[in-house]
Design brief:
Distance between the termini: 52 Å
Shape: globular
Strand order of the largest sheet: 2-3-1-4-7
Radius of gyration: 20 Å
Oligomer: single chain
Length: 293
């Protein structure tokens, strides 16, 4: 239960502070897409670039309220004292001005001119994000929906309790995972044709990382730097949470063992269900020529 002090403190930010028309002139890099589609891999690659800070997942671009618990989690993730975060909130006129101020502080702390933010759920809040950051560049990560569903079925595999990793035996219904893939992918595709939007397939990233990343940095207007393909060799001050990442594979060299995993995991019934729910989208995205797979 929240203490009286916590409730009173949170209440001070509910009237007016969240209702903001603040429009930033900055051009952040925003990453999103259905979970388990390579968003974390893209994040650590971009964070390795000398011009881009893209640190731990914060959810700040789609949050509606800043609770005491959220501030505590941000303090731990971002390695900023809670009182400093609260002072930053009190010193800004509105929520999105606070978001801008916080990310500016984080990028300056590591000596980079531009900041980015990664969260799968960003793809669901593009209208709001692009309203407040109209010059943002959005990277929509996509992955074969069959592999994504296989990964979502057993995600998360652990949670952290008091700094300790606790293994989980997760088994999510496959149909729910497939519907989530369709919902999230279609949410991003609404912005097809917008010059601020680019789609990147996870499969292209792991098969042709340099070619794919060159295209991404051209979109971002940033110079190519080959060290981004060596993200796993470079220690970044932005990645302290990678000591216990939710996706450990994103801090290791690219591996392809999860590519096409559905072939070993899908039953015939799974295939029929997927085709009925998401087969047309799979074909539209070019993963299959038709539904005869």
């Amino acid at each position: 239960m929240k203490s009286l002090i916590e409730r009173l403190w949170e209440k001070t930010f509910r009237a007016g502070w969240y209702r903001t028309d603040h429009v930033s002139e900055e051009s952040p890099v925003v990453i999103g897409g259905c979970a388990r589609s390579g968003t974390t891999l893209m994040r650590v690659m971009l964070d390795t670039h000398p011009n881009i800070y893209c640190g731990p997942e914060t959810g700040l671009l789609y949050l509606r309220t800043m609770t005491h618990r959220k501030i505590s989690n941000l303090s731990r993730k971002l390695e900023i004292h809670e009182e400093d975060l609260k002072a930053m909130m009190r010193g800004t006129a509105s929520y999105f001005r606070f978001v801008e101020t916080l990310f500016d502080y984080l990028r300056q702390r590591v000596g980079k001119p531009r900041w980015g933010d990664k969260s799968p759920q960003n793809v669901l809040h593009l209208d709001r994000i692009l309203h407040h950051f109209p010059d943002a560049k959005f990277i929509h990560m996509m992955r074969d929906g069959r592999d994504t569903a296989c990964s979502l079925r057993t995600f998360p595999q652990y949670r952290v309790v008091d700094g300790q990793r606790v293994e989980l035996d997760t088994s999510n219904p496959l149909d729910r995972c497939v519907r989530r893939w369709v919902h999230d992918v279609e949410a991003g595709m609404r912005y097809r044709g917008d010059p601020r939007y680019i789609e990147v397939k996870y499969e292209d990233l792991i098969e042709s990382d340099e070619e794919t990343l060159i295209r991404v940095f051209e979109f971002l207007g940033e110079p190519w730097d080959e060290q981004v393909t060596k993200y796993y060799e470079i220690k970044s001050p932005s990645r302290s949470e990678d000591k216990m990442p939710q996706n450990p594979g994103a801090t290791k060299p690219i591996y392809r063992t999860a590519y096409g995993r559905w072939r070993n995991e899908f039953t015939e019934e799974d295939k029929r269900m997927f085709k009925a729910t998401a087969g047309d989208l799979l074909v539209m995205l070019g993963y299959e020529e038709n539904n005869d797979w």
